[in-house]
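Subject: 2-C-methyl-D-erythritol 4-phosphate cytidylyltransferase

B.,
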Amino acid sequence: MGGDTPKQYLEVAGLSLLEHSLAALLAAPSIASVTIALHPQDGRAADIPLLQDPRVHTVIGGDERADSVLAALQDLANRASTDCWVLVHDAARPGLAPGDVERLVDAVTARQRGGILAEPVVDTVKRSDSNGCVAATLDRTELWRAQTPQMFPLGELIAAMSGALKEGLTVTDEASAMELAGQPVQLVAGAAANLKVTVPADLELVAWYLDRRAKGEEE
Ligand SMILES: Nc1ccn([C@@H]2O[C@H](COP(=O)(O)OP(=O)(O)OP(=O)(O)O)[C@@H](O)[C@H]2O)c(=O)n1
Ligand SMILES: C[C@](O)(CO)[C@H](O)COP(=O)(O)O
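Prediction pasted inline below.
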């Protein structure tokens, strides 16, 4: 994103990205507690009123997203059964709605199979060769863009993430680790509003979605 403010503390519609994401999770009836992985030098989280909620815990994160996720999962395992289900969410996805969380939880619990929110790819997708030319056109009917939350049993996810990191494998989401461990992962339709804020224009886009939601308009 550039700039001096860490992405999770950029503001949209009067709240930081982290606060929007946290509020959505806390408003979802299925969520019992939330553990937030913070940067070791984080100086801002303590000022967030929602962090006073007794259901919220914090832990020091790691160098990469996967390290932060594993730190939070291991902290959670100190006070929750490894059989319980856990959802991992990006602070950088502030457009999450409590209803999205419940849709994922319902699908996962109905089939007792881990799953993720995801959006079908709507463009024609090309794979490039090393010269920047098209090597192939992919079959988009099989392609989805992974979102978060991603929901798996706590113990299985810790084992899968630890295994992947020990082997030096890159896992950019939790499903990747579960796939490497040979576990099935179901795809549950996510909303366009649940985008990952990655470039400055995404802030305006997510503000638009949040404004429509606040006015009760369809997404
Ligand atoms: N060491 C890290 C790196 C990222 N994240 C979190 O992982 C989520 C998704 O990562 P991404 O959007 O890629 O965040 P950054 O790497 O922080 O940002 P960018 O790629 O835009 O530089 C974000 O909510 C971010 O806060 C984390 O917890 N620990
Ligand atoms: C987990 C994720 O949001 C799925 O799309 C994404 O992979 C995280 O972002 P990153 O840029 O890969 O860290």
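The pocket of cytidine-5'-triphosphate (ligand 1) is lined by residues 1, 7-8, 37, 61-65, 68, 90-92, 196, 198 (CB under 6 Å).

T.
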